[in-house]
Specification:
It is a single chain. The chain is an all-alpha fold and about 70 residues long. It has 4 helices and no strands. The mean pLDDT is about 85.
Length: about 70
């Protein structure tokens, strides 16, 4: 059985306290999963924004196959 990798607490604290500007109390109140969500590192896909929709529409335009009139 392999050992589970340890958390890099100094890096997580730097991200939470410096990047997110959390207070120490708020940082330590978060679960690791909540911290990952705050940092945008969760595995859930991002919601579809207007900009992303327009990007996809430009990349994959709706048009009939064959000669266009």
């Amino acid at each position: 059985m392999s050992a589970r990798p340890a958390f890099d607490w100094p890096a997580l604290m730097r991200l939470g306290l410096c990047e997110l500007r959390l207070t120490p109390r708020d940082f330590w109140a978060l679960t690791p999963a909540e911290l990952m969500i705050c940092l945008g590192l969760d595995s859930a896909p991002a919601p579809l924004t207007r900009a992303r929709l327009e990007e996809l529409a430009a990349r994959f335009p709706d048009h009939a196959k064959g000669p266009q009139e």
